[in-house]
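Mods, move this if it's the wrong board.
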Amino acid sequence: MLNLIKNFNIKFYSKWLLFVITLVSCDSNFLKVPESEIKAASKWSSNDQPPSFPECEDLKIEDQLTCFRDKIETEMSNFLDNKVFPLDSTEYKLTLKIDITGSFSLDNLSPQNILDNKSFLIIQEAVEQLPNALPAIKTNIGEFVEVKISIPFKLNYE
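Not the wrong board. Structure tokens:
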């Protein structure tokens, strides 16, 4: 009987030890996706859905972008219509960020050194008052994504 208990304990501990060694020695690197594959999958493709507004949804993808930009231009013009700016004929480039909820924020304005701080803040406020858009969708993962869009912009107060 004592011999049977010793054999059982040895078998039990040897199986347990084998399990622990196998678990510890497994390399989890086979689960990692290479950085190059992540970057390739993250690049914008023609299959991805750009941000849009509800009234632009029924259009072709190419026309949706035009509709989207026109809506931004109209909304900003309406906001800036009664604002006073110094004489300026410079063409600016607004880089707008649209987050995963469709909210707009001003990411960059160039050239920025021409505008005074008050004018910059007014433009920033004009961007922030834009209505929420339908966010962009990265179709290969089916997720909303944050995107940036650059649009030319003139104050036209000459």
